[in-house]
From TrEMBL, chain A:
It comes from the Bacteria. It holds the Pfam family Fer4_7. PROSITE patterns: 4FE4S_FER_1 (PS00198), 4FE4S_FER_2 (PS51379), TAT (PS51318). Keywords: 4Fe-4S, Electron transport, Iron, Iron-sulfur, Metal-binding, Repeat, Transport. The keyword Aminoacyl-tRNA synthetase does not apply. Residues 54-84, 92-125, 134-170, 181-200 form the 4Fe-4S ferredoxin-type domain. InterPro entries: 4Fe4S_Fe-S-bd (IPR017896), 4Fe4S_Fe_S_CS (IPR017900), MauM_NapG (IPR004494), RnfB_subfamily (IPR050294), TAT_signal (IPR006311). It comes from Shimia haliotis. This is Periplasmic nitrate reductase subunit NapG. GO terms for molecular function: 4 iron, 4 sulfur cluster binding; metal ion binding.
From TrEMBL, chain B:
One of its GO terms (cellular component) is plasma membrane. This is Ferredoxin-type protein NapH. Residues 217-248, 254-282 form the 4Fe-4S ferredoxin-type domain. One of its GO terms (molecular function) is metal ion binding. The chain crosses the membrane at residues 31-51, 71-100, 140-158, 170-192. Keywords: 4Fe-4S, Electron transport, Iron, Iron-sulfur, Membrane, Metal-binding, Repeat, Transmembrane, Transmembrane helix, Transport. Pfam families: Fer4_5, Fer4_7. It comes from Shimia haliotis. It comes from the Bacteria.
Length: 278, 306
């Protein structure tokens, strides 16, 4: 081998290797192009809401075969298949635009029943459990209720009235002697059906919009504990910081800096001290 | 020879068999393609919902689910195991095509076939050079590439570009700019590569070809002894390499076209003035003597084979 640098490769083998290299290289280029297109199409636009029960977007594109059976079985023509270059969602996948036709939240969820692959999850049996998105009162400057009027339309049309949307009363600072009934969405109930967005009386864009959960919600912090929900200490078995209680020797309002004013409130309970009961 | 190639393909067949018989399978195929597309269009056009969906997945008479097995495979590779309905539909489709001939999907059902056939017809009329001719196994490279991209990206990757879905779904649900993919395939076949898309690139055809490797329905060059070398079958065949082994075979070679690339389009049957070809099954072992050569090196007994 080393003595024959110019040794000829078997022509058939040489041709095979050439063809294989050419095919592989061509497919690598084409594959990268396809990969780029696929990644590009994964960015689902904010305004495209997937049908009820839709798997998370990354799983949805592995499971939706774009047959349109959910579209066909939607009684309100809410769902459409995305058209290439016209709608932003991945070509041929189902979505709806709440401002055009919202989801009517059928009890029997025909779109989910129609899906042959499970891209719309059959585990969704109660439409109230669906989370297509989350309504957000996004423009609090033009919302009529926020201005102090009693429009209330989004609240009235909500299929889960007084649960998904409530009217929270607060003082009208502008007039000084009126109330503002602020439409307030509750994420534990809102299905993202979009009826509020559809019915918002403002011309053009709605003040309240259904947004994808991923946009509408910030992940709750794991770092901060909600003391009123969790009673356990910050770090198990290590330290138990004294609770703020009235009395001397602690940082409290009754005796700031431990200074005991004359006639101040005297605590009757015993203060916990580190290691006292450990 | 060069003068011969400019004669319209099948002119002898038209002269001998008449226009209709010389286009019998072409007409039947167009009717079949129109029939399958029409079934899907009944709903959106006339409100008759016998068939809902599209070629990717459908529901017929509210009972029969059908799924494109290639799409199902991509979904599984991408990491989603489909529900039973889709699996069931894919198995039915795969079984049918494995039985009758995988690439009958290409020539009798696929809506892009009319596009690329038109491109091939225009190509012939304009007498263009055949252009880039990728290797026969290119489509299998593309098939592998699609499955790899599906697996890596976790998506049903080919559906982002598949011209078949683009056209079929576009006609049924709304086209958008999906027509650009169809036009691209037409122009590719016309100017870049003769018979380029369906016969060299398309991974869907490759997949269905693999499905039908052992399919029953086959074209046979039963009367190959009568062949007069007019070459019309080669000119009209979208996969011309499948013909030679059968047509040019010796007595002991099977006259059956057994290549999984054959689309069972039947055009070779149409254009043959001397009726060499016919549809039959892969079990047909009727003796089919080879052609008599003009100057045989050794004398050969004719009609004693098998």
């Amino acid at each position: 081998m080393s003595a024959k640098p110019a040794q000829k490769m078997d022509p058939a083998r040489r041709r095979f290797l050439q063809d294989a290299a050419r095919g592989t290289a061509g497919c690598a280029v084409a594959g990268m192009g396809l990969m780029w297109m696929v990644q590009d199409a994964r960015a689902l636009p904010e305004r495209a809401i997937r049908p009820p029960g839709a798997l998370p977007e990354e799983d949805f594109l592995a499971s939706c075969i774009r047959c349109g059976l959910c579209v066909r079985d939607c009684p309100y023509d809410t769902l459409v298949l995305a058209e290439l270059g016209v709608d932003g969602a991945a070509t041929g996948t189902p979505y709806f635009t709440a401002r055009d036709i919202p989801c009517e939240m059928c009890d029997d969820i025909p779109c989910v029943a129609a899906c042959p692959t499970g891209a719309l999850d059959k585990d969704l049996t109660d439409i109230d459990d669906s989370r297509m998105g989350l309504a957000v009162l996004i423009d609090q400057e033009t919302c009529l209720n926020a201005l102090g009027l009693r429009c209330d339309v989004c609240y009235r049309v909500c299929p889960l009235i007084d649960e998904a949307i409530t009217l929270e009363r607060r003082h009208n600072e502008r007039s000084g002697h009126h109330a503002i009934f602020m439409p307030t969405v509750h994420s534990d109930k809102c299905t993202g059906c979009g009826k509020c967005e559809k019915s918002c009386v403002l011309p053009g864009e709605a003040a309240i919009k259904v947004l994808p959960i991923r946009t509408a919600r910030a992940p709750s912090s794991e770092h901060y504990k909600l003391g009123w929900e969790e009673n356990n200490p910050l770090v198990d078995e290590l330290i138990d910081l004294p609770d703020r209680l009235p009395g001397t020797g602690t940082d409290n309002l009754a005796a700031p800096g431990g200074f005991e004013a004359e006639g101040a409130f005297q605590p009757t309970m015993k203060l916990p001290t580190a290691g006292a009961d450990g | 020879m060069s003068a011969n190639t400019h004669l319209p393909v099948g002119h002898e067949a038209i002269r001998d068999k008449g226009l209709i018989r010389a286009h019998k399978y072409l007409i039947l195929r167009r009717l079949s393609q129109a029939f399958f597309l029409g079934l899907f269009m009944l709903g959106p056009w006339f409100g008759i919902w016998w068939v809902k969906g599209n070629l990717s997945g459908s529901l017929t008479l509210d009972i029969l689910p059908l799924t494109d097995p290639f799409i199902a495979v991509q979904g599984i590779v991408a990491g989603h195991w489909p529900e039973l309905t889709a699996i069931f539909g894919a198995v039915i489709v795969a079984a049918v095509y494995a039985l009758i001939g995988g690439r009958m999907y290409c020539s009798w059902v696929c809506p892009v076939n009319a596009v690329t056939d038109t491109a091939a017809w225009a190509h012939r009329r304009m007498d263009l050079p055949k252009g880039w001719q990728p290797k026969k196994n290119t489509r299998f490279y593309v098939l592998g590439m699609v499955l790899i991209v599906s697996a890596v990206s976790g998506t049903i990757a080919w559906e982002f570009v598949n011209p078949i879905s683009m056209l079929h779904r576009g006609l049924i649900f709304g086209m958008g700019f999906a027509w650009t993919f169809v036009v691209a395939v037409f122009l590719f076949d016309l100017f870049v590569s003769r018979r380029g898309w369906c016969s060299h690139i398309c991974p869907v055809g490759a997949f269905y070809g693999l499905l039908g490797t052992k399919s029953l329905m086959r074209v046979s060059a039963q009367e190959r002894a009568a062949c007069d070398d007019c070459m019309d079958c080669f000119a009209v065949c979208p996969e011309m390499h499948v013909i030679s082994p059968a047509l040019r075979g010796k007595d002991e070679d099977t006259p059956l076209i057994l290549s999984p690339d054959c689309t069972n389009c039947g055009r070779c049957i149409d254009v043959c003035a001397v009726d060499v070809f016919q549809f039959t099954t892969r079990f047909d072992d009727t003796p089919a003597p080879g052609r008599v050569r003009e100057k045989p090196k050794t004398t050969r007994k004719i009609g004693k084979a098998a």
